[in-house]
Here is the input.
Amino acid sequence: MSIQEKTSTPDLMESLREELTCFICLDYFNSPVTTECGHSFCLMCLLKSWEEHNTPLSCPECWRTLGAPHFQANERLGRLASIGRQLRSQVLQSEDEQSSCARTPGASRVFSDDEQSVINFSTQSHGINRAYFSSEAEEQHKEKLQDILSLLRKKKKEAQAILNHEKEREVLCKEETKTCKQVVVSEYMKMHQFLKEEEQLQLQLLEKEEKANFKKLRENEIHLTKQVKRLSKMIGRIEFTCQNLTLESFEEVRGAMDRCELLLLQCPETTITELSLCRITGMRDMLRKFSNVTLDPATANAYLVLSDDLKSVRYGGTRQQLPDNPERFDQSATVLGAQIFTCGRHYWEVEVGNKTEWEVGICKDSVIRKGNLPKPPGDLFSLIGLKIGDDYSLWVSSPLKGQHVREPVHKVGVFLDYESGHIAFYNVTDESLIYSFPSNAFHEALRPIFSPCLPNEGTNTDPLIICHI
Here is the structure.
């Protein structure tokens, strides 16, 4: 390397340093950003400068007013600054090694006189090289260190303030949680009390109706007992008359017939008893977790027509060309739900509308699909609606059990709690319980079951519709 090349290295280093130095901190760029006017600064230096000066925002170098605090990260400049810093370190190390061997009058200087003039390199007793700077450079560095200390103290103050605030928030968080828990307990206590009162009112109403029904039954029992006695007495008289009947006693026969006429006109009647609907307060709110039940086409009888969204089923009247797979019902107008339940609580609602016959419920996944034989007890838990003339009744199976209802049910809610073995049917319209099966331990998978049943002389053609969530 020539002497001229050696002497030009500091100049090149100085030029490179100037290009890679932040105008604000006079150090190599750290996370540089470029403003809209084209000047680059360290990110923290630019933010600090804007923080210390009032608006309008301006460029710290050219003082051009900026419309908004917009800047663009300059990653390439950052990488160049990193390379320049490393190169400077290597040059310093090389100069240090040269000066440690022997000091020559032509030793090169790396730092500029304006920033930090290198006076001397000396080896200390511990083998550590130190640089001695001029008083001017020392003052500049002290000012820089003071600025850094001010920033650090400010950051520490901010961090301490946030730390104190977080500690206060911990206490407030505990107090707020405690208060919320108390509110929740209080509100649920009110709900429990309200529901307890509703429960007592329902029980009192049932007890009152039970007494009224029992009174009717007792009164009718007394009436029927008297009627039986009168009929027995009259039967005895007629039998005696028949045994002693002569042609001359026709008047006695006629008199006996007249006496029997009133008794014969009296028809024994059963007592009609009534119980109020078992309305459950907040029933739909408690069962609000609906299950998204849909129909399983693979199980549908070939005469059944399913909607595209698999939410409704009706009897089509024409047998469709469908494969007779093992899952499909071949005799019963039935289809299963696609969902299989092995745990949890589930609730769905079915619109039965004005149909005169229908069936909805829950069955075992292993329920018999072929033939039309009665289902074994425990395989099927269903509700059947049946209207004959003006008489409307509901039946549950299995075993089959019926009950008369005053008004038709238009929408049925089906509830399953697998773990507790509980199945219940609700009248959604008036939020009353229709029937609740005794608890039964389930050991197999369960599925929803639906049957729109067959048309009845042009009626009962409406579909069963699973209500959307």
